[in-house]
Amino acid sequence: MSRKNRKRVLVTGGAGFIGSHLCEALLEQGNDVLCVDNFFTGTKDNIIHLINNKHFECLRQDVNFPLYVEVDEIYNLACPASPIHYQFDPVQTTKTSVHGAINILGLAKRVKAKVFQASTSEVYGDPKVHPQKEDYLGHVNPNGIRACYDEGKRCAETLFFDYHRQHKLKIKVGRIFNTYGPRMHPNDGRVISNFVVQALLNEPITVYGDGSQTRSFCYVDDLVRSFLLLMDTPDSFTGPVNLGNPNERTILETAEKIIKLSNSKSEIVFKELPSDDPTRRRPDITLAKNTLGWEPEVDIDAGLLKTIEYFDKKLKEDYGS
Ligand code: NAD
Ligand code: UDP
């Protein structure tokens, strides 16, 4: 890419699972990438392979504090995403979503940057409408243990749309559904990372509840592709737009599949279902198909095999197991 066309792109939460794949994709497109992260759940290992790229920079900073940089585009991903991590310090989680959004929107306003918000299917809560379309307003418990994340992300959406209406900011709001792949944190408690690590160690696979609750899992490469397409839509398109894979399955089926694909000897054990755990989740991605020309391409077996390969290598490196 010529110097003239090279964009300066800020990725907050760039050292996290999704953020690190996004930084890679933006560099491959020929951009200058600034990753900002406080390393709460992200790690240097996720971005170590990018450090020697002269078009990549990393800054340790918390988005709860204002940031003064000159950029053309911003992807705001900074926020712990797994229930264990976002419930560890729930007050900080809400602050990160809300103060973080205020700081990032203020920056976008000053430098006139286009700004993407990593919103979430959690804005629909435990949905009473299935599959979820963008016009469904959700069913969220405002004072339960997931509220710090769900309500924080809902408030961030409010701020994005108010900055758009009031200050004419160019915004893109993507509602991300469950995503998996290499560089998930092995201890983040999310279902795919938990099951894969347990299966590789031949330890019991912990299914919460009876495992009949559903999720729809998107491979990270598919998701990152959707972010780039969304950022390139005309300014009149703001979203919110669902980004995820509509292929829905139960948690019990997912456990059985992971055991099979990893040739594991693990047995399934049933544990208590956490409170406010959504019963069903599947995105309606009609809007993403029509506006971005996007739909997921990686099927679950292929995506899981890549994830299993990643964790197998990581467990051997970290624990020599
Ligand atoms: P992750 O925890 O791996 O990444 C989040 C990153 O943000 C980490 O690198 C973390 O250190 C950083 N961070 C957290 N608080 C910060 C702060 N105050 N200042 C600066 N950096 C901070 O999670 P992920 O799965 O990569 O999620 C990325 C984004 O996508 C999050 O905003 C999350 O809410 C959203 N999302 C993810 C999923 C999913 O299934 N992975 C689903 C819906 C939405
Ligand atoms: N889950 C499970 N065992 C685990 C981890 C999670 O059965 O070891 C369940 C969890 O109760 C939920 C689903 O898997 O019903 C997805 O959980 P995750 O934390 O990955 O994402 P979220 O609930 O935020 O969609």
Overview of this structure, please?
By secondary structure, the chain is α/β, with parallel strands linked by helices. The chain has a domain at 8-184 and 217-245 and 282-297: 3-Layer(aba) Sandwich (Rossmann fold). It has 9 helices and 13 strands. It has helices at 17-28, 83-86, 90-111, 147-167, 191-200, 220-231, 251-261, 286-292, 300-319; strands spanning 8-12, 32-37, 56-60, 73-76, 114-120, 171-176, 179-180, 205-208, 214-216, 218-219, 241-243, 248-250, 268-271. It has a 7-stranded parallel sheet with strand order 3-2-1-4-5-6-11, with helices on both faces. The protein has a two-stranded parallel ribbon with strand order 7-10. Strand 5, helix 4 and strand 6 form a beta-alpha-beta unit. Helix 3 (90-111) runs parallel beside helix 4 and helix 5 (191-200) crosses helix 9. The protein is globular and about 55 Å long. The N and C termini lie far apart (43 Å). The mean pLDDT is 96. The site of nicotinamide-adenine-dinucleotide has 29 residues, from helix 1, helix 3 and strand 5.
